[in-house]
Amino acid sequence: MRAQFVLSEIGVGLRRNLTMTFAVIVSVALSLALFGGSLLMSDQVTTMKGYWYDKVNVSVFLCNKSDAESDPNCAKGAVTDQQKDQIEAELKKMRVVQSVDYEDQDEAFKHYKQQFGDSPLASSLSPDQMQKSLRVKLKDPEKYQVIATAFNGRDGVQSVQDQKGILDNLFGLLNGMNWAARMVMALMLVVALMLIVNTVRVSAFSRRRETGIMRLVGASGFYIQAPFIAEAAVAGLIGGTVACGFLVVARYFIIDHGLALSQKLNLINFIGWDAVLTKLPLILATSLLMPALAAFFALRKYLKV
User: Using one digit for the tens of pLDDT, what is the confidence trace for 187-235?
Assistant: First the structure.
């Protein structure tokens, strides 16, 4: 009987404040969709870092004949075979180094043609203008500075370059976008909480006569509060379900179909469905508990029982 009464009161409350309930559902849905989106963005950045950092090389570029005239780092002339062998041997002995591959001028020219064959500059280059280099694979990409410190300024070394620096700029941009989404999400959560509090306050005020009668007949405080808390929880749960739908639809149309980024951007390792599905229970739990707690604390102030 009590459960039936609470359920009937939930229906009455939702219908009585239909406009505000709809606003609560929309604000909760948007804020939790942004919440889930920011979590997925973090997962995506982490996945991309793991994928790309594993492929990062440190390149030790060696001096050639043309560098001796134009680059002060190569003032002593082109690298000799003895210098190259010594540098390669020292690299292989370093604990942070996983592997070292030598790329001569012909291989460098071949790789350049593969990557920039459509460039007008490619037709004017020849293999003897390319630089010899040692491609160093690190066990930990964060240890680039160890290689740079050890070999920058060495005879025969033109420069030491880390591909990770290019990727860091990209990941910095993605992280910035992620934090911007989190700030908007926080703002939307505040709006949602304010709407929930106002909805509960209006509902409690409109039913002050019923709650007064319930007090007189000895109803407990929780029994009086339960319909209001349940109303907020139901509205929040509906909003959370909509937010989950947003995330599933976005993953389906943006990555798999529609825009089909997974097919167009083969170089990006996108997160899978498992990352999305593991976030949905968290979103639903948040959508249920957040409005219920907000309503509970609001009732302590606006509904004296």
Answer: 888 888 888 888 777 777 766 676 666 666 666 666 677 777 888 888 8
Residues 237-253 as b/e (b if ≥16 CB within 10 A, e otherwise) read bbbbbbbbebbeebbee
281 contacts 230 by C-beta, under 8 angstroms: no
The label of the residue with tokens 């407990």 reads 220
> Tokens 């982490």 appear where?
46
User: Rounded to the nearest 10 degrees, what angle do helices 221-250 and 18-53 cross at?
Assistant: 50
Q: What is the DSSP letter of 255?
A: I
Q: Which two tokens stand for residue 8?
A: 């009937």
| Residue 95 tokens, joined | 């604990």
Q: Where does 1-120 show beta strands of DSSP type E?
A: 57-62, 97-103
Q: Which residue has the tokens 């379900």?
A: 241
Question: In angstroms, rounded to a whole number, what is the distance separating the alpha carbons of residues 93 and 144?
Answer: 15
For the entire predicted model, the pTM comes to: 0.67
Contact 137, 53 (CB under 8 A): no
Closest of 292, 36, 289 to residue 185, by C-alpha:
36
